[in-house]
TrEMBL record, chain A:
One of its GO terms (molecular function) is ATP binding. It comes from the Bacteria. InterPro entries: AAA+_ATPase, ABC_carbohydrate_import_ATPase, ABC_transporter-like_ATP-bd, ABC_transporter-like_CS, P-loop_NTPase. SUPFAM superfamilies: P-loop containing nucleoside triphosphate hydrolases. Keywords: ATP-binding, Nucleotide-binding. The keyword RNA-binding does not apply. Pfam families: ABC_tran. This is ATP-binding cassette domain-containing protein.
Automatic annotation (TrEMBL), chain B:
It holds the Pfam family BPD_transp_2. It comes from Chelatococcus albus. Keywords: Cell inner membrane, Cell membrane, Membrane, Sugar transport, Transmembrane, Transmembrane helix, Transport. It is a multi-pass membrane protein. It is found in: Cell membrane. Part of the binding-protein-dependent transport system for D-xylose. Probably responsible for the translocation of the substrate across the membrane. It comes from the Bacteria. This is Xylose transport system permease protein XylH. Residues 1-28 are annotated as: Disordered.
Length: 262, 388
């Protein structure tokens, strides 16, 4: 059944209610191998609810969710992780006071020894950490150094590298660039591009159209819990995307008033 | 010149001496690895403050105290109270690194003493059963503390503050109930009997060794040939062994990594698959069991237990942990630091009696040391993490 053409993730008509609040009212999206799918939408559009549903935090009220062609029902983020869907949350999942190595292997420490006398194989862990950091071009001078000493962009990259190393097939990145400066952002975007070339699927959530357009292959725009549409890069211009995301008119007007800088 | 060659192990040195090149390949070294200076590595150790403090305190007493303080007998006198506090402080340090406090451990010492004493005197249980029962009750109380903290998401400070009063009150009520009106329960030492197990929890170890040392004039002895120090109190051995185990677990095992993670950022740790709730509950059980151990050790030594056992020990344990480098916010600290923190405590509380200072300066010292340690820890943390 599973072929190269089978989407990694296929969500159809996902509906999610929280009591009387309808957070998602029928959202569909697919992610293929080696593709960056950008999920765009303004605040309150339902981006967060959607990714939390895809990553196993929430269960959809109705709708179909397939991973590599198989219908799935996740009851925890751990299930999603085991199916190869790794989420790098905005608040990172990195602990500043702990060393890069300890963070990298947190929850999945390699051990040696037997019975109750197991210890962490730090030689292996340090070597792997250094190697993986080298691959993404981060020069960690010393794997003992605390993650707090890394820049925001480097931390995002460490979090992504960790997910890739532990066998993720799909990466869900929740606004990885929203708190970063220009140089840091380009570093993260470059790394997203690298991950795509490895054949992973990436869901890149952002409300910055420029960042999305720089690395995205396809764009799904959400508005008020619905999919406004999915477009490939050749189909749509960056300005149209911007308008679509903001719900059209008002922003165009504002853009004209401000001389086209929005 | 010969010395230069012997020291020439770095890649640069090899390059400057081509004659040595072909004979042995230069060591494979990662060029991206910057040599971390010894100073940086030392600065990164959380227990640095405690070691520095211990050195300072030792120098102070060396200059002001009577020489007998540093004799073998004097050192044992210092280490005995340090050991009792230290067992609590090591457990408290692990719990603090895991992001929680336990203010009920002082009262737990009294309550566990009551359970242990009642088991032996009132219910006449054999010593092994009494010891087991004491640990089981303590672990259960710790688990309750942990579960309440986790489920209600209340600060453990408040939850265990309630425990502090409840356990103390239950000890008083229980003691009067068991003894028929007294707040002291006597006769435990005699009723406990002798045996291998008892010698694990009371008395002195290595007595043979100390007699031999005295016989060979290697240590001080009385006129009748008995050594002045008959052995090492077992509490000191417990203290040292527990410090070793705790340090190894913390720095070298998965559980240690999970403790740091749970205290550093519980949500991030959960997202990475760390069983945070189990880790925290386990740590609460550990601190309660440490209190039970101190109770058994002290009750067997004294032969009796009373309601005022362990008063203020919860604060002293936390102070020792903080002196040892634990941050109040969790996620950072060391078990061996708490070990040194407890020794500083013992040294000052006992040491002042060897000097001409009023021994009530102890309290002043306590507060000042705490304040200094917190300031120092904050500074070091910023240095270590490059916090901006």
């Amino acid at each position: 059944m599973t072929t190269a053409a089978t989407p990694l993730i296929e969500a159809r008509d996902i509906v999610k209610h929280f009591g009387s609040v309808i957070a998602l009212s029928g959202v569909s999206l697919t992610v293929n191998r080696g593709e960056v799918m950008c999920l765009l939408g303004d605040n309150g559009a339902g981006k967060s609810t959607l990714i939390k549903t895809l990553s196993g935090v929430h269960k959809p009220t109705t709708g179909e969710y397939r991973v590599e062609g198989r219908s799935v029902e996740f009851s925890s983020p751990r299930d999603a992780l085991d199916a190869g869907i790794a989420t790098v949350f905005q608040d990172l999942a990195m602990i500043p006071l702990m060393s890069v190595t300890r963070n990298f292997f947190m929850g999945r420490e390699p051990t040696r020894g037997f019975g109750p006398f197991k210890w962490i194989d730090f030689d292996h862990a340090h070597a792997v950490t250094r190697e993986e950091m080298h691959k993404i071009g981060i020069d960690i001078r010393d794997p003992h150094q605390a993650v707090g000493t890394l820049s925001g962009g480097e931390r995002q990259c460490v979090a992504i590298a960790r997910a890739v190393y532990f066998g993720a097939k799909v990466l869900i990145l929740d606004e990885p660039t929203s708190a970063l400066g220009v140089a840091q952002t380009s570093m993260v975007l470059k790394y997203i591009h690298q991950v795509r070339q490895k054949g992973l699927g990436v869901i890149f959530i952002t409300h910055n159209v420029r960042h999305a357009y720089a690395v995205g292959d396809r764009f799904t725009v959400l508005n008020r819990g619905k999919t406004l549409g999915t477009y490939t890069k050749s189909d749509i211009h960056i300005d149209e995307l911007q308008n679509l995301m903001a719900g059209g008119k008002e922003l165009q007007q504002l853009s004209a008033e401000l001389g086209g800088t929005v | 010149m010969v010395d230069m060659r012997a020291g020439a192990t770095g890649p640069g040195a090899v390059a400057s001496e081509p004659s040595a090149g072909p004979a042995k390949a230069p060591p494979v070294q990662d060029e991206r690895l910057r040599e971390v200076s010894l100073l940086t590595r030392i600065m990164r150790r959380p227990e640095l403050g405690a070691v520095a403090g211990l050195v300072l305190v030792t120098i102070f007493f060396f200059l002001t105290a009577d020489r007998t303080m540093f004799s073998l007998a004097g050192v044992m006198t210092i280490l005995a109270p340090a050991a009792q506090l230290g067992i609590l402080a090591i457990a408290a340090a692990l719990l603090m690194i895991g992001g929680e406090f336990d203010l009920s451990i002082g009262s737990m010492v009294a309550f566990a003493g009551l359970i242990f004493g009642a088991a032996i005197v009132a219910w006449q249980l054999p010593l092994p059963v009494a010891i087991l029962a004491t640990f089981v009750v303590a672990a259960a109380a710790g688990a309750v503390n942990g579960q309440i903290t986790i489920r209600t998401k209340l600060p453990s400070f408040i939850v265990t503050l309630a425990g502090l009063f409840m356990l103390r009150g239950m000890t008083l009520v229980g003691l009067k109930w068991v003894t028929g009106g007294s707040t002291q329960l006597r006769g435990i030492g005699d009723a406990a009997g002798e045996g291998v197990l008892r010698s694990l929890f009371s008395g002195h170890a290595f007595q043979g060794l100390f007699s031999w040392l005295a016989a060979n004039n290697l240590i001080d002895k009385f006129d009748n040939g008995m050594p002045k120090v008959s052995g090492v109190p077992v509490s000191i051995l417990w203290f040292i062994v527990l410090a070793g185990i705790a340090t190894w677990v913390l720095l070298r095992t998965r559980i240690g990594n999970w403790i740091f993670a749970a205290g550093g950022d519980a949500n991030a740790a959960r997202n990475s698959g760390v069983p945070v709730n189990r880790v925290k509950t386990g740590l609460f059980m550990l601190t309660a069991c440490a209190a039970a151990l101190v109770a058994i050790l002290t009750v067997l030594d004294a032969g009796s237990t009373d309601a005022r056992r362990g008063v203020q020990k919860e604060f002293e344990a936390i102070i020792a942990a903080v002196i040892g480098g634990c941050l109040l916010t969790g996620g950072y600290g060391s078990a061996i630091g708490a070990f040194f923190g407890a020794i500083i405590f013992g040294m000052v509380s006992i040491g002042l009696t060897y000097t001409r200072f009023d021994s009530d300066w102890f309290q002043v010292f306590l507060g000042a040391m705490l304040l200094l340690a917190v300031l120092f820890n904050n500074f070091i943390r910023k240095k270590v993490t490059g916090e901006r």
